[in-house]
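A favour, since you know our structure tokens better than I do. Just paste the record in under my message, thanks.
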Amino acid sequence: MTAKYAWVAELSSKAWCILCYNYFMRIIESKIDKAELLKSEIVFDGPMIKAVVDIAKGVVAVDAGLHADLERFLLEHGSEQDNLWGINLYPEDTPDDFVEFDSMINVRPRQNNRSRYVEDAETRAKILEVVYKWLN
């Protein structure tokens, strides 16, 4: 993982999560392009950006080291658990490979999703609709 500020790498993992949770996370509610997405504070090698989509509210949260932090952030902003799905975004990849439906927060047996992958085609389509609404 890279960060714009070298001192961040010096923090303990616990402090890093607190810092990410309190400072970096944001909810995308207006159109941005992939170049702007790449300016995110938390970009993993790939480059890859973790995101959580609320398919009911139609928003995307980004800028955290863990999908679980983004999930919590959206829950605190009025989202409901059943509508939140974790994805990875690869802004430099082809449109077919831009979104990866892979996150531990997606493991939900009560919603018939028993893996990290979003198994339901309709849910994947809703996620893509929200992602492409804001990111182009």
Q: What stands out?
A: Residues 1-20 have pLDDT under 50 and may be disordered.
